[in-house]
Specification:
Blueprint: E1 2-3, E2 6-12, E3 15-20, E4 28-31, H1 38-51, E5 56-60, H2 76-84, E6 98-101, H3 115-127, H4 131-147, H5 154-166, H6 168-175, H7 180-201, E7 223-227, H8 235-252, E8 264-268, H9 272-275, H10 280-293, E9 298-304, H11 312-315, E10 320-323, H12 331-342, H13 352-358, E11 363-367, E12 379-383, H14 395-404, H15 419-518
Parallel strand pairs: 4-9, 4-10, 5-7, 5-8, 6-7, 8-9
Antiparallel strand pairs: 1-2, 2-3, 2-12, 10-11, 11-12
Helix pairs in contact: 3-4, 3-8, 4-7, 5-7, 5-15, 7-8, 8-10, 12-13
Length: 520
């Protein structure tokens, strides 16, 4: 609850426990075992920031934070708590200005970023690339810039990686060598991100981070709720989103110094997923952003089960602490309790380690920075109750708020011409030119074959004519020879006939002469 310029967090005995609004950008931690009240604490803090005019972003990992959009419901236990905290005059069940978001585009407006916005450095850390692969990825981004190729979504990056792999020899002298193995390693590293929904996160219209820094007509900060029920099951995408968001804020916001209140406050639930098995370079990047973003007027609050889930380098930056109960049934759990106790400024009135294991639901050890920036001693605090609904909002209310929050500009996906379309077009043009060249060569081949066949057929026809002519000549000669022989035979026959005739005639004459002589 926001009261007298401070955030009223609860009671330590009869003493009010408050968090200084001007110190709330020094970041914080809400820790505790499951079911101890972390979500209620987060909601109560988010309500207070909103009432103070500070925009809020938080992850809804169980689906119940959406109740901020609806007024709370009176109950006997709630009424007792209101009286216990002495807030009867100021407390009222009310809803808060909420804007719903969802990377998977199911229960809120889409949240998108472009591959260019993510950049090669962040992307390399998220994907856990080797130094050689990171170098290749930087070259790929440089080639994209030099060739004017937009890297918007993952298919753009994949298309450019394939293009560079195919033409790497052309770029050796300008950008350096790029091995096929390194390119293949990057493509393999993209698969988990794609499978977890990266194809939905990377795209346009990309989110303008300033749209999360709005207030309503009454001056209350808008509470931006990211539905994360599905998202937290995909740690690579979850880490990608959170790291991009922090980096985007750091780059976009100007230096602000110490302000009366933060420009924006983030709550990262299930924060251990951001660091689980994270490479050292990724943790270093998160640490760097957490350190520097404070001066931009942004507060970051990690919500997790144990302070041990957060790397020491990051934990050291979290000055406002709320530690709910931890259970210690195993040596590892006992160590976690000791770590949590050591992160508080000791209170001589009790042993911190024992109290952490004895806290009831809705109670916590708290330590906040005072007005001078000094951590207060640990206090056993009964956390104040939220004014909004302690449960999920109805789906109809969610849809109604989404229809009127002015963020529908993100609902329609835009797929403008980028690297994928350009390179695909070039590939298709090259394939078309290749196909045309193949068709031309095939035509020339067929033409040559046709001409060769034609020549062969003409030669065959010529030979056939020659054979026919030779046959005709031979036939004619044969006929002429036959005619000659027949003529000769006829001549011989006539000669013989003449001779016979002559012989016969001569004989007759001779006989006649003889007879004439005899009978003369």
């Amino acid at each position: 609850m926001y009261k007298d310029g401070k955030i009223y967090m609860g009671l330590a005995g009869d003493e009010q426990v408050v968090m200084q609004l001007n110190m709330s950008n020094r970041h914080g931690l809400i820790a505790g075992a499951s079911g101890t009240g972390k979500t209620i604490t987060m909601k109560a803090m988010a309500e207070s920031f909103s009432d103070a005019g500070v925009p809020v972003f938080l992850c809804d990992v169980k689906g119940d934070v959406s109740g901020l959009a609806a007024p709370g419901v009176s109950s006997e236990s709630m009424e007792k708590r209101i009286d216990r905290f002495g807030i009867r005059d100021s407390f009222q069940y009310k809803s808060y200005p909420v804007c719903f978001w969802d990377i998977y585009q199911e229960k809120g407006h889409p949240v998108r970023a472009t591959v260019s916005d993510m950049g090669p450095d962040l992307l390399s850390r998220i994907l856990g690339l080797t130094p050689a692969q990171e170098g290749v990825l930087n070259i790929v981004f440089k080639i994209a810039d030099d060739k004017g190729l937009l890297l918007i979504d993952l298919k753009d990056l994949r298309a450019l990686l394939n293009y560079v792999s195919e033409h790497k020899d052309e770029y050796v002298t300008t950008y350096g060598s790029m091995s096929t193995q390194s390119v293949g390693g990057i493509i393999r590293a993209l698969l988990p991100l794609e499978n977890q929904g990266g194809d939905l996160f990377f795209g346009e219209p990309d989110l303008d981070i300033l749209d999360w820094m709005r207030t309503d007509g009454n001056g209350r900060g808008i509470v931006n709720i990211l539905d994360s029920v599905k998202l937290v099951q995909n740690p690579t995408l979850y880490a990608s989103f959170l790291l991009w968001m922090m980096a985007e804020l750091f780059e976009r916001l100007p230096e602000a110094g110490d302000l009366e209140k933060p420009k924006l406050v983030f709550f990262f639930d299930e924060a251990h997923m951001l660091f689980a098995d994270a490479p050292k370079v990724l943790v270093q990047k998160i640490e760097q952003v957490v350190k520097l973003i404070r001066s931009k007027g942004v507060g970051i609050y990690f919500v997790t089960q144990s302070p041990g889930d957060i790397p020491d380098s990051v934990l050291a930056q979290l000055s406002n602490r709320v530690q709910h109960a931890l259970r210690a049934y195993t040596p590892a759990e006992q160590k976690a309790v000791r770590v949590a106790a050591q992160s508080f400024r000791a209170n001589p009135a009790f042993k911190t380690e024992d109290v952490i294991m004895e806290l009831g639901v809705g109670h916590a050890l708290t330590s906040f920075l005072d007005e001078n920036g000094v951590p207060t001693m640990a206090q056993q605090t009964a956390i104040i109750c939220p004014q909004s609904l302690m449960g999920p909002a109805e789906e109809g209310l969610r849809r109604s708020l989404m229809a009127g929050d002015g963020m529908d500009k993100y609902d329609t996906f835009v797929d403008r011409e980028s690297a994928y379309e350009v390179l695909t077009g070039q590939r298709q043009l090259a394939e078309k030119e290749k196909a045309l060249e193949e068709e031309r060569l095939q035509f020339e081949k067929e033409k040559a074959a046709y001409e060769k066949q034609k020549e062969k057929e003409e030669a065959a026809a010529l030979k056939q004519k020659e054979r026919e002519l030779a046959a005709a000549i031979k036939k004619k000669e044969k006929e002429e020879e036959a005619a000659r022989k027949k003529k000769e035979k006829d001549a011989e026959r006539r000669k013989a006939q003449i001779e016979r005739t002559l012989i016969n005639t001569g004989s007759q004459i001779l006989r006649r002469g003889i007879l004439n002589t005899l009978f003369k």
